[in-house]
Please model this.
Amino acid sequence: MPLIENSALVLAIWACIGYLLGSIPFGLVLSHLMGLGNLRSIGSGNIGATNVLRTGSKPAAALTLLLDGGKGALAVLLARWLAGEDAAQLAALFAFLGHCFPVWLGFRGGKGVATFLGLLLALYWPVGLACCATWLAAALMWRISSLAAITAASASTVWMALLGAQTMLLLGIALTLLVFFTHRANIKRLRAGMEPKIGTKK
Model:
């Protein structure tokens, strides 16, 4: 049972906490600490793991992936423990928004894939694992990170329906639409056949 009874104020607080956790720019921080240069001037300028990989540092990219996923999971688990499932889903949505649109970076953040997968694992791990497997299969098949992300996001609501997580469907639809929005430039490049493959330096 949650430790604090739900109310509009409690939900608003967890939305804020989720946003603040999600907005931590681990890619920028790690790139600076590891002397990899200004991530904003490398590749796509994105703060996520795919762009960190373009610095040539696989450890930095892997750590960024884990931390970006972890902050989404942490937001969900804390909210669920302290305020219940509604707060957990709201914290998940706002953690994703925080990563993609952090106020400290002029609302120019990452595309949210690692955070998306992390929060799904925390919300309902069978769906999270299924989406991770979908992303991995798509990435191995096409070696294009954005296409793998779009595929995993598109499959997420299907997995929710199949694996008994129907209470997450509205959240799943919202997150899927946001993934498509954050990848709108990638979708244009995919259509033009110009999207770089995983590990390619721009």
